[in-house]
Automatic annotation (TrEMBL):
SUPFAM superfamilies: Isocitrate/Isopropylmalate dehydrogenase-like (SSF53659). Its EC number is 1.1.1.83. Keywords: Manganese, Metal-binding, NAD, Oxidoreductase. Coiled coil: none annotated. Residues 6-347 form the Isopropylmalate dehydrogenase-like domain. GO terms for molecular function: D-malate dehydrogenase (decarboxylating) (NAD+) activity; magnesium ion binding; NAD binding. Belongs to the isocitrate and isopropylmalate dehydrogenases family. It comes from Streptomyces bathyalis. It holds the Pfam family Iso_dh. InterPro entries: ICDH/IPMDH, IsoCit/isopropylmalate_DH_CS, IsoPropMal-DH-like_dom, TTC_DH. This is D-malate dehydrogenase (decarboxylating). It is an enzyme of class 1 (oxidoreductase). It catalyses: (R)-malate + NAD(+) = pyruvate + CO2 + NADH. Its cofactor is Mg(2+); Mn(2+).
Length: 354
């Protein structure tokens, strides 16, 4: 029996278009072994489109991908186009409209990939669960008195009980499937309305999940601990802003931003979820065929998990982990000379040889 999936591809800008084909090739290869067929519809939504037509995506863009089973995104962003355009013109509408309120980022130090931290070894294995649709990244606020000496800017954060409860439930449920420990990022000593509310809801979640241990840490102390001893974490949950910072930091701890994967999940599955490498469009290396495809490939493996095929997802992970552990073929970001295709071919050979 074959299970068919329709995937919306948004290569985006720069190396986005170079790392998605490897991810699709890996999906096809592993799909063959597991009775899964993928058809891909590609959309040219990007900063290039913005430059030509004044919008990252067409007005009915979301409707065009609403009925796909998942979205695979490369990267959006390009010099000359302000970051908030690619963010608010594409990524944030998709995340919000499709209620992808979980941003999930696994952090693992893989054998054969040196971490910048001497102490980080393969026992570093945790996930960052970031709230993805509310919190600090709101549209509420404004600028007053432009050009006057007392000019000011005001930005409101929005934390809703349902919004915080559902991300905490996701984090605690994830911990139940892992080692059963949650650390919540807070800053309730400085941010005195939203963060104490967040802390209260964390305590309530802790009561709902008596089998999970939890504690909270102020974000400033927490980032220091992630650097000093990353092996002590299982699940870290944070608001939109804190989760963003933590997950980029953690990706760096794992060795290279070129490896780090991310999933924007709609846990209710009433809309597609979106999978994207953590890295950006990398204009400095775009077009050279040297980008590390691993972040995109790992993201595709998270897509397999989400679609209900964790064995296939794990096979992808094993395949690239074994390339890293048993060969010295590396892309430039990991100190090697291999191109995107060289590395991808080894992963594909690994899958074919299983
Ligand atoms: P954006 O604004 O789109 O996030 P950025 O410039 O902030 O872009 P990245 O595009 O992630 O960040 O690039 C940061 C650095 O990491 C660059 O030097 C880039 O070449 C490198 N880099 C990012 N992704 C990869 C990759 N997949 N393979 C190799 N190097 C990468
Ligand atoms: Mg960036």
């Amino acid at each position: 029996m074959t299970t068919r999936y329709r995937i919306a591809l948004i290569p985006g800008d720069g190396i986005g278009a170079e790392v998605l084909p490897p991810a699709c090739a890996v999906l096809d290869a592993v799909g063959k072994r597991h009775g899964l067929t993928f058809t891909y519809d590609s959309f040219d939504w990007s900063c290039e489109r913005y430059a030509a037509e004044g919008a990252m995506m067409p007005a009915d863009g979301l409707d065009r991908i609403r009925h796909h089973d998942a979205v695979l995104l490369g990267a959006v962003g390009w010099p000359g186009v302000p970051d908030h355009v690619s963010l608010w013109g594409l990524l944030i509408p998709i995340r919000r409209q499709f209620r992808q309120y979980v941003n999930l980022r696994p952090i693992k130090v893989l054998e054969g990939v040196p971490s910048p931290l001497a102490k980080a070894t393969s026992d570093v294995d945790f996930v960052v669960v970031r709230e993805n649709v509310e919190g600090e990244y709101s549209e509420i606020g404004g600028r007053l008195g432009r050009g006057f000496p007392d000019e000011m800017a005001i930005q409101q954060s929005v934390f809703t009980r349902p919004g915080v409860e559902r991300i905490l439930d996701y984090a605690f449920t994830t911990a139940q499937r892992r080692s059963g420990d949650v650390v919540s990022a807070t800053k309730s000593n400085g941010i005195i309305h939203t963060m104490p509310f967040w802390d209260e809801l964390v305590k309530e979640a802790g009561d709902r999940f008596p089998d999970v241990t939890w504690r909270q840490e102020h974000i400033d102390a927490l980032v220091a601990k992630v650097v000093l001893d990353p092996s002590r974490f299982d699940v870290i949950v944070g608001s939109n802003l804190f989760g963003d910072i933590l997950s980029d930091l953690a990706a760096a701890v794992a060795g290279s931003i070129g490896i780090a994967p991310a999933a924007n999940l709609n846990p209710e599955r009433d809309h597609p979820s979106m999978f994207e490498p953590v890295h950006g469009s990398a204009p400095d290396i775009a077009g050279q065929g040297v980008a590390n495809p691993l972040g995109a490939i790992w993201s595709a493996s998270m897509m397999l998990d989400h679609l209900g095929h964790p064995e296939a997802g794990a096979e992808v992970l094993d395949s690239f982990a074994s390339v890293l552990a048993t060969t010295d073929v590396r892309t430039r970001d990991l100190g090697g000379t291999a191109g995107t295709k060289d590395f991808t071919n080894l992963v594909l050979e690994g899958i074919a040889g299983r």
